[in-house]
Amino acid sequence: MSYNIISASMHRDEEKHWLGHTVFTIGESKTEYEISFFSKNGKDWDYSLHFAGEPGAEEEFLQLDARLEEDDDLYDDLLDAAIDSIPE
Which residues have a Cβ under 8 Å from the Cβ of 62 and sit 6 or more positions away? Predict the structure, then answer.
């Protein structure tokens, strides 16, 4: 299933933890999702998925969340988009 990244960002907070966000659509859906990333060390990441704008179908949301748990390539692509936004 294809996806389209709309925006991505990553920065460090005042405690030097990494905080990132990637906004995207997936498949034919027009619903925008945002995945937020958090890491204390830049290696071990936690994430949270939510609607980026108007809420969509809850069933679609739950399916996407389950897919993120199983599809390492999709998860890594979304995380890499946020990491790639870090200024050199």
Answer: none
